[in-house]
Amino acid sequence: MTTPEPSYRTIQLTQGQVALVSAHRFEELNAFKWFAAWRNSTKSFYAMRHDRLSSGKSVLLSMHREILGLGFGDKRRGDHENHKTLDNRDGNLRIATPSQSNCNRGIYANNVSGFKGVWWHKKNKIWRAGIRLNGKSVHLGCFASPEIAHAVYCEAAKRLHGAFASME
Fold this sequence. Notes:
There is one protein chain. The chain is α+β, with helices and mostly antiparallel strands. The protein folds into two domains: about 10-95, no CATH class; about 100-165, GCC-box Binding Domain, CATH 3.30.730.10. Helices cover about 20% and strands about 35% of the residues. It has helices at about 25-30, 65-70, 100-105, 145-160; strands at about 10, 20, 35-40, 45-50, 60, 75-80, 85-90, 95, 120, 125-135, 135-145. A three-stranded mixed β-sheet has the order 1-2-7. A three-stranded antiparallel β-sheet has the order 3-4-5. Strands 9-10-11 form a three-stranded antiparallel β-sheet, with helices on one face.
């Protein structure tokens, strides 16, 4: 009995990190020296490498953008559907506009409710829910508990953000 080929492979990075890639991309990607780069904005590592443009300028390339075919200067973003930035398997990556990518962001570090899209309104002593749509804030209402406010946020996120909706 033969063991089936794994659907993904790992690429060692610096700082003890590992990137996951689809098995069919392993040889092509493993030919380069990748490193782990920390980004404070997402509080996570990304797989990166150095490259040189035809002009001779040295640039940093991220693995997920390379997989998606997003060249240097392309304004579109590579989005990790499961928020795991070192999971660069084909099924976890998608091309997104900046707005779509922001819809898939996780909860902010300064969040006190524990729920995305929910905050405490100090003056009125009530929980508020809100969401962003096309760069503008949309108020979803005031609620007695953060759980109820979050349920309203989740419904709005599914309706307004579709496949890029993130509830966490």
